[in-house]
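Q: What would this chain look like folded?
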Amino acid sequence: MKYLHTMVRVENLDASIRFYRDALGLHEVKRSEHAAGRFTLIYLAAPGDEDAQVELTYNWPDADGKAETYTGGRNFGHLAYAVEDIYAACQKLMDHGVTINRPPRDGRMAFVRSPDGISIELLQAGPSLAPAEPWASMPNTGSW
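A: My prediction, written as structure tokens:
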């Protein structure tokens, strides 16, 4: 298992970039715009340590121009880890009584929650695995 990133939702992308990049000194590793999902992802890391990243997620305003606001810790998204075999990792979690909130139907990504409700994203290291049962037809459970 390898630590990947921590995701934080931001309300003002420019202000967040000024904080994380300009004031804190992190540098931008990667940026992607997702028009279909209406969000922007920006990955930042400390100089010389690109393995541990902060993902800033900016959800675009709706058609009326209303931006999301976050309360109660909702701006914190999740911890993310790469795993060698996402199916084996999910099976091990299930064997320990953990609910797979977002099963790895795509052979790539799954979400679980800690006992305190913290979302944990598991990502297949390397290429996605071929879809397989029981994962391919397993529905989402709760929120992730």
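Residues 72 and 84 are 33 Å apart (CA to CA).
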